[in-house]
Write the structure tokens for this entry.
Amino acid sequence: MSKIITASNKAIKKLNTPQLLQGGLYLTWAASLLMLVSTISGIQGQRHAINTIGKDATPSITTAQRLKDAAAGMDAYIANELLALPGQNQDAVKGYNERYEKLTQRLVAAAENITYGDKERKPIETLQLELGNYIAKIQQARDFHERGDTNNMLVAYRSAAEIMDQKLLSAAEALDKVNVDALNVTYNKEKFDSGKSLFFIVISGVALISVLVGLQIFLSQRTRRTFNPMLLAASAIAIAFLNYTTGAFLSASQNLRIAKEDAFNSMYVLRQARALSYIANAAESRYLLDPAFALNYEQAFFNNINKIGKLPDGESFETVAAAVSIPNFPNYRADGFTGLLADQVKNITFSGEREATVKNLSALGAYVAIDKQIRQLERSGKHAEAIALCLGNNKGQSNWAFDELKGANQKSFDINQAAFDNAIKQSFKEVNGFEYITPVALSAIALLTLFGLLPRLKEYSV
């Protein structure tokens, strides 16, 4: 290596001043070209990641999750309808129809936003096919219910419930997973590529600035001209452009991190919790509707509630909510509270999010407490009272508590959705226009260097 360096130094010493100036000019152009390629490719990669996370994967994930809670909501409402006498629960009929309309709209949206081929297409096809089968079974259950044929109504409803549990919800989950996996792969790759791109941008920028400074020093020593205005201007542009590009790149990466890690991760667990709450709500009604499988439905209810939030021994949702309401409560996340809302507690970031999360926990506690009352009434032989509490919309009744839970969940979701949208918008803004700014800035540097060196080169040509 030392021999190579020695040989290079000897070769450089043999060059005269014009040759060295020409070499410096060519090096400036080469460094400018390298920075042009590094910047454009890095910015385009960053923009692709922002677009994938903000425009492709995230809307598809949200649609898949909404498909799931729309489907689970249909099942909860139909169970409530069948619990009452025929025609006596129009709120449930209305809710079922609204959920069905939402489900069909979201199926269309999902079909229009297929990005990953058959991995998305097949779950969507399953949803379309099995939804028709589910509706047919529900209509049979309604017909038997209208005729007062409880046994056949339950047979038809069980078939519908099986389609819901094993086909519809599973397909929605599969559609969700495809997009979540794609988002995580893209985001992890972006973090690596972002660091690599920024490294090359900085290296090429420093190389360009070093050549320009080196030329300035060389001219000062060889030609006894202290400053070359053109080279000074080129150096100033290079420094400013490198600073601007680095700042924009880091800011875009930070906004993308906020969108993915702070906002989207919360949005995702909140949507999962919402779907599970619908599934638990359906299990609560099934518990009263189908006594033969009451224990199974009771277990299903608690399994889904535990996925939303599993309490430590000796605590209630009220005590957890009280602890979470204290900012910077010492590591409450490690005190045994698990589940989706525990994940949300760990990721409280934005203004108003803590208060919304506390309300979510309190609403879940109120809902679970009312469910306990329903089971106590049912076990005491007070079936009619249990149904009334389950179907009631007044304060202190199950449907009221469930609406409160949904509202609290939506409030938390909306806070994170707004933060996500703003972060994605800012990320796009940071990388906007670089395809125009970069060639203009680097062309200016190349031309200023040329015009700065031409007078010196002409001095040696005469």
Remarks:
- Residues 17-60+188-461 form one domain.
- The mean pLDDT is 88.
